[in-house]
TrEMBL record:
Keywords: ATP-binding, Coiled coil, Kinase, Nucleotide-binding, Transferase. This is Serine/threonine-protein kinase. Transmembrane segments: none annotated. Residues 174-244 form the ATG1-like MIT domain. It comes from Crassostrea ariakensis (Suminoe oyster).
Length: 256
């Protein structure tokens, strides 16, 4: 219960810092707080796709890393591949480039559809021009043009024959398989980071896995696949929540 102060303190002198007029400064509101629900829902979708495209591009870059190429070469030398001699490095290089191209094309598809969505919603006045939206669209445009540039470079190295095999269906199916494997790899690496007390890297990897698994779950057509992906996604969410609760680690993004 709230009680009154002792009588001898009821009319005591105010502390020095309380004498004179006290200015109240209202905290500033984020611009998005003043927008409608439609605007914020669309912004959330665009932000998610932007993060997703960033994760897929990160995977594509990892496919071209020297250590990844070396690992593939070692696997083939251990008898996992049927090719021998000079054919082996050429095949590995072609496969690596194809995987990169598939992932960059998938990123292009995601970014293109989201930029078109933003254009429609702005035209229909459901999405308002805010500073946050300008920043987000700038990031998406930069990633889009980077993907276009890298795709052109890879296409020149692959030649026409390889490119003709990449139908939209093949791109999506192959990209999804690579994305799924990468998400599982991120979970495994994050678990090691968590074990050895590295919450920053651990959270980042779990968050990457969560974004990728959520995306795969949203587009899964097979109910069993969706159920399995949701199961993995929920497990990752629990790890993210646990890290936030126990490590007092609060990153710039939230679990969605």
């Amino acid at each position: 219960l709230l009680t009154s102060p002792p009588y001898n303190l009821m009319f005591a002198q105010s502390p020095p810092n309380m004498e004179g007029p006290v200015a109240f400064v209202a905290p500033g509101l984020a611009e998005e707080t003043l927008m409608g629900n439609n605007h914020n829902e669309i912004m959330a979708k665009l932000s998610f796709v932007n993060d997703l495209a960033d994760c897929v591009m990160e995977l594509a870059m990892a496919k071209g890393a020297p250590l990844n190429t070396l690992s593939e070469s070692v696997n083939w030398k251990q008898g996992e591949g049927p090719l021998q001699g000079d054919q082996m490095p050429k095949f590995i290089e072609a496969r690596r480039l194809l995987e990169q191209l598939v992932l960059y094309v998938r990123s292009l598809q995601l970014l293109s559809s989201s930029l078109q969505l933003a254009r429609r919603e702005i035209k229909d006045e459901r999405l308002q021009i805010s500073n946050a939206l300008k920043t987000l669209l700038k990031q998406m445009n930069e990633r889009y043009h980077r993907c276009v540039s890298v795709c052109k470079h890879i296409q020149q190295r692959l030649g026409i024959t390889m490119q003709n095999a990449l139908t939209p269906q093949v791109v999506i199916a192959t990209a999804d398989k690579l994305i799924y494997n990468y998400a599982i790899e991120m979970c495994q690496t994050a678990a090691l980071d968590e074990l050895f007390g590295n919450p920053q890297e651990c959270f980042k990897r779990y968050n990457t896995a969560h974004i990728l698994l959520h995306s795969l779950s949203q587009q899964a057509r097979n109910s069993n696949d969706k159920q399995l992906l949701d199961k993995y996604k929920d497990a990752v969410e629990r790890r993210l929540s646990h890290i936030q609760a126990t490590q007092n680690y609060y990153p710039q993004y939230e679990i969605s």
